[in-house]
Amino acid sequence: MIYLLLFSSVFIGYLIALILKIKEVKTLSIYLAFSGAFLLALTIFELLPEVYQIPNKAIGVYIIGGILLQIVLEFFSQGAEHGHVHIHEHNNKFPWLLFISLSIHALLEGVPINENNNLLLGIMVHKIPIALILSIFFIKANYKKSTTLLFLILFGLMTPLGNWLSNNFEIIQNYHKEITAVAIGVFFHVSTTILFESSKNHQFNVSKMSAVIIAVIMAYFL
C-alpha cells in the first residue's frame, strides 16, 4: 500500500495537469508553500527526534552533508525539487541529468518512511505539486507523451524503491540513522527553499502565511 500511494502521487500530479490545464506555475505558489511547510514540520517533529534519540554530533555532519548533496543535485535539476523546471522547447531527447538528479533525491526520500512516522503523507503532499509542475513543463516544451510518461513512471518508482531497499538490505538498515540524517538535510534545503521562493520579493502574504500555519498545525497533530 505504501509503494502504491507513493507511486500514485506522481500520477495524481500528472492527471491534475491534464485536467486543469494549468498554464502558469505561479498559480501553485500557495500549495507549494503549504507542501514546503508541511514537509519541514514533519521533518522537525518526527525525523529529528528519531536520529537524535542518542545525542551524537556526527548526526549533524550527515544533516549538513544532505544539505550540500541537495545543492549539488539542484545544479543538475535546476531546482525541479522545489518547483523550477527549465526545459528547452521542441526538445524530444530524454532529460537524463534532470532524471538522475531527481531520482537520487527521490530514493533518499523513501528511506526514512515507516509505520512509526507520518512522513509518507508529507512526501505525497510534496510530490503531487512537483509532479504537476514537471508535467506542465513537459507539455509546454512539446515533449512526446511517451517520453513524459516514461519519465514520470521511472521517477514515480524511485521513492518506493528507496523504501523497499531500506526494508530489505541489511547494509542500509545498519546505516539507517545516518541515511535518514542525510535525508533530513535534503528535506531542510528543499522545504526552506520552497518557503523562501513562494513569497514574491520576500513580501508578507496573508494567504501563504495562513497556508504555512495550517500546514505546521496539521503536522504537529498527526
Strand tally, please?
0
Give the N-to-C terminal Cα separation: 19 Å
Number of self-contained structural domains: 1
Report mean pLDDT, rounded to a whole number. Answer: 86
Number of helices: 9
The arrangement of helices and strands along the chain is HHHHHHHHH
The proportion of residues in beta strands is under 5%
Describe this protein with a few key phrases.
mainly alpha; globular; single chain; 222 residues
Brief digest:
By secondary structure, this protein is mainly α. It has one domain (2-17, 29-84, 91-221).
Element layout with pairings:
Blueprint: H1 2-20, H2 29-51, H3 57-77, H4 96-110, H5 119-140, H6 145-168, H7 170-174, H8 176-197, H9 206-221
Structure description:
The chain is an all-alpha fold and 222 residues long. It has one domain. Helices cover 75% and strands 0% of the residues. It contains nine helices and no strands. It has helices at residues 2-20, 29-51, 57-77, 96-110, 119-140, 145-168, 170-174, 176-197, 206-221. Helix 2 (29-51) packs antiparallel against helix 5 (119-140), helix 2 packs parallel to helix 9 and helix 3 packs across helix 8 (176-197). The longest helix is centred in the last third of the chain and has 24 residues, at 145-168. It starts with a helix and ends with a helix.
